[in-house]
Amino acid sequence: MPKSQLFESILDEVAQEYADAEIINRWMPEDGEYTGVITKYSEGDKVYDDGGKMAWARLTVQLIAPHDTGEGGIDGKEMSIGYSTKALFSLKGDTAALSGRVINDVRVALKVLQDSLGTVIGFEIKTTIAKNKQSYKNATITHIVPDAEAPETV
Question: Is the pTM of this model over 0.85?
Fold first, then answer.
């Protein structure tokens, strides 16, 4: 089936944006406590149609032992922990766990996230039900794993 010229011109307009797009991993393991290593930090912003705006940051975490390593196991799988200016409490709590102190400056908190690459962390996954009756999985960093070394595959 031939493509229309409009279709092709739209694809031309978004080609670079698509090439530069980041893959966001929305998978999270089941509720529970896990160990992982922070492998990536990214940030950005969004402007909504109604004029509202939001800044966001995201950590990519690779799960490491002692999780199931058998077929279908989760060791080595990656997941994302997201933060936004719409929910600053999670950023404040996680950066407190990473730095060992409460950080009251949002820019300093983001710097803590940026500087956490290679850090082995303990974190908890918990499913909550929102007022709209939808369930959401949330990840909360609980601590840095002392004296832990990130696996060489990271």
Answer: no
